[in-house]
Amino acid sequence: MSEPAPPSSGRPPRRGAPSRLWVAAFAGVAALVAAGVAGLPALDRAFPPDIRRAEPSAVVVDRDGTLLRAFTDSGGRWRLPVTAADVDPRFIEILTAYEDQRFYEHAGVDPRALLRAAGQALASGHIVSGASTLTMQTVRLMTDARDRTPWRKLNELVRALQVERRLSKDEILTIYLNQAPYGGNIEGVRAAALAYFGREPARLTLAQAALLVALPQSPEARRPDRNPQAAEAARARVLDRLLQRGVITGRDAAEAKREPVPTRRRAVPRLAPHLARDLVASAPGVTRFETTLDADWQARLEALAGERVDLIGPNVSAAILVADVRTGEIRASVGSARFLDERRAGHVDMVHAVRSPGSTLKPFIYGMAMEAGLIAANTLLRDTPSTFAGYEPENFDETFQGLVTASEALRRSLNVPAVMLLDSLGAVRLAVRLQEAGALVALPPDKTATLAIGLGGFGTRLEDLAELYTAFGNRGRPVPLYSSGPRPPANHRLLEPRAAASIDAILAEMKPPRNARPGLIAYKTGTSYGYRDAWAVGYDARHVIAVWVGRPDGTPVAQLTGWTDAAPLLFDAFARIGIEPRPPRPVQTPTSELPPPLQRFLPRGAQREAESDLAIAFPPADATVALGGPGGERMPLTARVLGKRVDAWLLDGRPVDVRPGRRTAQIDVATGPHTLTVVTADGVSERVTFTVE
After folding, report:
1. What are 460-497's pLDDT values in tens digits?
2. What's the mean pLDDT in 671-687?
3. Which residues are catalytic, by number?
4. What are the UniProt keywords, alphabetically (predicted)?
5. 3-state secondary structure (DSSP) of residue 322
6. Domain housing 194
7. pTM of the predicted model, to two decimals?
């Protein structure tokens, strides 16, 4: 009979053998607690704990604290700052109920949990449950300890007691909420809630809260975007324990388990990327930047810019700036149509890019001319081929309109009248006035302002234009714009109140783009030379919006204009944020009722002649005229003047289409009282009142 074979060295060990060290450790820990507590004061003084709060990610928030943009920390981790007050109370309740029921009662170590765990380990021969408190887990997060040896456990226990002597429960909980791992480069409950659910942790469902409680125990193995089954199972265990402990009902648990587990990571909010980037770069080390922006408006207008450029053409971008007319607070800043679109150079912030403003500054030329007493809203201006010291401006459509009122010339953005006024005011005077009001006036090196600046012959920024236009809502004084920090000091006055009110009334009568309602906003458009930049700046009773469209590299875009491309975007932007009706506008004095010097503008150097050289021969003053023909048909009025040639004929204050220089005019006149005014080329005028029957 053969001898029995010796036992194999590969035989499985007894149940619990690998845990002998841990069993002994738990038993020893229970015995050491009393001695540790007694010697804690001396130990605490000799070896104070290293309380480290990890560097949070830099965040940029809107006026209400809503996250606009976040940046990873120096280690590439998403760790968004949060406090216990920012988190749904249900999550805190679930966290403490699952991880540490007596968190608010113990001093860092839960003796009952420690003795229970040690007893279970001794009775079963292996670890059944842990005894880590939230404070001990927070110590582990602060030290970034990864080994799980008994000595490390003992160190956490002692350090937890020390930490509790220095920090409040809310401070300990805040560290945990900011540094708990949630898989990948996500740390902290706020980053996790945004990444997995696309929402702030202040509003969580029961299922979401349970999942966020379960993930830090094994963040990589339970990542819902990598292993949704494991994440769902871990969430179920949390819900089952909450049910067992009476924190939730069976119905709550069942409904939470039916809620789908997220299977992908969401992008962290990236609103106002240009503004956020510049803020963070301006203050290294600062981790929270508060702005005046409105996150909802910002999101709407970023989407609008992207939609609009797709209709305009390839490689075209757009920028939109919204500001409060009264306070200067910037409410939205869209630097480009799409920040990550390389074809459109989306990384370039066109809100602050220096470009030619086109005709957007003409309102200030007319306002300064009114302020100087050169014109009124209905003063007649000549729009004919003209030369100013070798400079020959032309209109955009290469046509000329003859004699027009100042209001019409501004609304139609005619170039010759604007340059004619600027020639009398002085180009340097305009440039200085704009600079004193806070705007950038970028001219070539060693060059001074010329008449070309009236048509956009210099560089400025979209933000500067928006700031200048706030003057029309503030009695001529522009309000400095700002997006963060304290409110800047006031700017110099740009226009006198009366001139600002007159220009405001003219801009309010601008024809709106197709399918837009008239009279809701006052605005002006502009197009730079060569179809490179299209602008529109407008305002209602509360907000100013400035819009730019073009290519960031300055390449021309065929047929790009402020009227066809920027103005529709401006009106759509107002529609997205809501329009606040403007107050009633002043009634402009008709041309015929203006003082003779203001009825027609005389260019610099023109001389007036005696008024006695002009007289209206027909119709006589206060006459009643019958204009019926032999067959009863209506005949035109044949008006005649004596003396000087007439340059402009006006019936009831409105220009009559008569060739300049004529002394007679055929005028269609309706029945009733009328006023006929004639004006010579040098500004001499005469008028009569009459009645047609």
Report:
1. 999 999 999 999 999 999 999 999 999 999 889 999 99
2. 84
3. 99, 359
4. Carboxypeptidase, Glycosyltransferase, Hydrolase, Membrane, Multifunctional enzyme, Protease, Transferase, Transmembrane, Transmembrane helix
5. strand
6. 17-58+66-258
7. 0.80
